[in-house]
Write a structure and sequence with these properties.
The protein is an alpha+beta fold and 243 residues long. The protein folds into 2 domains: 73 residues, Arc Repressor Mutant, subunit A (Orthogonal Bundle); 135 residues, Winged helix-like DNA-binding domain superfamily/Winged helix DNA-binding domain (Arc Repressor Mutant, subunit A, Orthogonal Bundle), CATH 1.10.10. A 4-stranded antiparallel sheet has the order 3-5-4-6. Strands 1-2 form a two-stranded antiparallel ribbon.
Length: 243
């Protein structure tokens, strides 16, 4: 009795296609790896997809690459939805001597940065109200020059004040994937930054994480931003924070 022809059982569903599929995925991962290595800025999955191909499962490939890099000296991280290669956190001290030493931010600057991070979008007047002291414009200038905050838009209120928010560089510097990863009340207490006498109902706000808040208008081209009117320095503004 003759053996039945192989085609009688339908198409071959063996493992012949698996090596080919594996090779395609490996090539796609190498393309992504090369893009991330060559890019000076973090990349979005959409941008990566333009180079890898429409049929590529970018999210899955990025997750695999992140796993591949998990135990290496360089890690693949996501910051605000954008992906980048970064030195492993536990090796930061090894490279510290190769970095340019930066002057620590003063107390007024750090407090202002915290207000912006947790209350964004926020205006200069709102920052002063939350901190309870008048603020020199140089404090915001320090944060703008450091790339930690940016001018987002203008509040739809009389005077149309500028609103401020954090940047991708802020997330990257503090190792945050998104704004919702900012420390909460329990973390502040555990770090000793809040006493045990804080009100039980105190809530730390979750900042708005969108590009433009419903009560903001976008900045126009050539917008001068804040005026240069000097105000009195508050008592806790460090000399290096002055404009």
């Amino acid at each position: 009795m003759a053996e039945p022809d192989r085609d009688d059982f339908g198409p071959d569903t063996g493992t012949e296609a698996e090596p080919e599929l594996h090779e395609v995925r490996q090539r796609q991962k190498r393309v992504i790896e090369a893009l991330l290595f060559a890019s000076a800025e973090p990349l979005s999955p959409g941008t990566i997809g333009e180079f890898v191909g429409e049929d590529a499962r970018i999210d899955d490939l990025l997750a695999e690459l992140a796993q591949d890099y998990a135990g290496r000296g360089v890690n693949l991280v996501v910051r605000g939805g954008l992906w980048a290669l970064r030195t492993a956190e536990d090796l930061a001290h090894v490279l510290r001597r190769e970095q340019t030493e930066r002057k620590p931010l003063g107390r007024a600057v750090l407090e202002t940065l915290a207000v912006v991070a947790y209350h964004q979008p926020v205006t200069r007047a709102e920052i002063e109200d939350i901190r309870g002291v008048a603020m020199n414009k140089g404090v915001l200038d320090v944060l703008l020059e450091a790339g930690f905050i940016r001018m987002r838009g203008r509040r739809r209120t009389p005077g149309r004040p500028i609103t401020y928010g954090t940047t991708l560089s802020f997330l990257d510097h503090f190792g945050l994937e998104q704004l919702r990863d900012l420390p909460g009340l329990d973390e502040f207490k555990g770090a000793g930054l809040l006493s045990g006498q804080v009100p039980a109902d105190l809530q730390i706000p979750i900042p708005f994480d969108g590009e433009l808040h419903p009560d903001e208008d976008p900045l126009e081209d050539g917008d001068p931003g804040e005026d240069d009117t000097d105000v009195e320095l508050d008592d806790d503004t460090d000399p290096e924070d002055r404009a």
